Amino acid sequence: MTETLEKALAPLFIIGSFCNLGMLEYPRGQPKAYLSCLYALVKWGSLTYYYYYPISIKIFWNYKIFFIADFSQLTLIISILFGFRHFKELKMCLRKLAIVDDTLEALGVQKEYQRLRNWIIRITIGWIVYVICRSTYDAFTYCVLNCNFDLWAVTLDKFLIYYPSHIIILSALISTAIIGLVLYMCVHLLCKLFLLTL
């Protein structure tokens, strides 16, 4: 039953693994820790060296202030490290949730994996639309205010500036989905137990 639960949560886990919030799994169920760490190191090392570090130095020397994205980058790197460290615990949590779900099924509660999967797909699409709309809106307003007509370069620039905060939002969405699933199962289990005692 763990496979069914993981299949329902797969859209968030797949996008999360490409954003370094979990380990890459290929084939499914076999995490590749070495490949995940190497991917995170190459991606964030190159982004920091070629993009975030020069912008931070330029802003610091021009305005003598710290770039606010530096704190979100630090928060993101810490959450990536915690995500790698607690990946096995997350899988154990999903196995225990599958046991609770089997208990609920034995008590007569229907499994609603398709509805959960559709809900998670809608959340994922909403997150992607939010990222695209925010980057495009910020780029458009910047181009209009500064009379800059290179919209694609400015859009990429705005996307990269807010990329750490978008990944933090995705991490919160994954955590919220799992906590919501746990609460949903707990409420159903308590209701069934209460009805059985009557």
Automatic annotation (TrEMBL):
Keywords: Membrane, Transmembrane, Transmembrane helix
Membrane-crossing segments per the record: 33-53, 65-87, 119-140, 160-187
Highest taxon, organism lineage: Eukaryota
Record protein name field: Gustatory receptor
Source organism per UniProt: Trachymyrmex septentrionalis
